[in-house]
């Protein structure tokens, strides 16, 4: 029995290390490609593929497969996506902006993968504060983390034509809106009863933060 348990543990560790390596390689290749102007357009076209690949890798290590999880996943996707629709068509929540062609097919003028992005950020930042007992405090910290991440992403997104701001200015309302929507979804995530531990989540989040931090120097300055 002990040998079987040990073999399973070794197998899981191997799979996790492979997944971590894949995450690093995906982002490293993307980082190099996006930082080189002559290859940038080609790598930009692969942006939705990278997001979906990250989603698949993350779900491979998800443990809480019960009835609550798909509801939370759908809520994160559709609330985030719906907020973007409101933002695009009214200027409320985030400010006056439009999406470019980089992020792929759109529904109501919003790229479909934006909903995936909302889920990924909620899930990974939620993992960081998973052990905090107070749901509201954890949701507050999760929303703060997501707002800080958006602050890092915004200059890169504008430089790479993910979206465009009116008068090329990122308004403070964008960050306020991000915080509010993130807090609401984080509360749903916290209140839902499913196992939230995922050994790949924090690794993916840290890689994503490092990815956009470096792009702030290689893309926005070029």
TrEMBL record:
UniProt-listed Pfam families: Caroten_synth (PF04240)
Segments crossing the lipid bilayer: 12-36, 42-61, 68-95, 107-124, 136-160, 172-189, 201-219
Annotated InterPro entries: CruF-like
Keyword annotations: Membrane, Transmembrane, Transmembrane helix
Protein name, as recorded: Putative membrane protein
Organism: Algoriphagus hitonicola
